[in-house]
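Input chain follows. Return structure tokens only.
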Amino acid sequence: MMKKENMKNSKTNQQPQYRTIWISDVHLGSSGSQANLLARFLKEHDSEQLYLVGDIIDGWRLKSKFYWPQSHSNVIRRILTRAKRGTEVIYITGNHDDFLRRFVDFNLQMGNIKIVNETVHETADGRKLMVTHGDMFDVVTRYHSWVALAGDAAYNGLMKVNGTLNFARRHLGLPYWSLSDYAKRKVKTAVNFIGDFEESVAHECKSRGLDGAVCGHIHNAEIREINGVQYYNTGDWVDSCTALVENHDGSMELLDWSDKRFD
């Protein structure tokens, strides 16, 4: 458990473990995806609703090189099984899986799975939250696609170094350490980018009269209040391995599974 709001446990035997689970930035189709870990997470955590908050499938990576091991199929199977058993699954499109956006206008729904670009979620305690991947608030992704592609390549290179580093740390008995998270917190431009992104999301919520937002995109798990707006970022399943969950009383928390990659 990483961060949480004050909460009371209202779970009963008749209810799923959580009212809602949000995950994003799984990047199935890329070698960096922690698909095995996510499949375990989905097996051990159930909910009434499951939001897939964009970049679940990495269309960018699949275009350049096809990569789809069994572990990635296992994640899809887990999601489909959840939907079949009654979980409402809402797939929010992202920039890496933007090929799905062409189907949104047709109100595409497959069984208990609905595909949308954005939606509003109402929590158990009555708060209204904008749910969006978040790439619309990233000026680089929106207006400078070639820079975004270059940045994506650089990020994947960084994650390969991160994997090698943590392989060595594991054999030394040391816990997982995120090189990308360290870089984001130490490099001034990265820190400013994250701050600007979060402020833009909060401003949009306020202009719409909403109480908060749930997003992904920047791979930076967070729960914070910005100018009276509740900001939630789900993180990712490449590095942070985090999920946002809503308890049955409407309180929210981030679950951190990064250390479980070594189990």
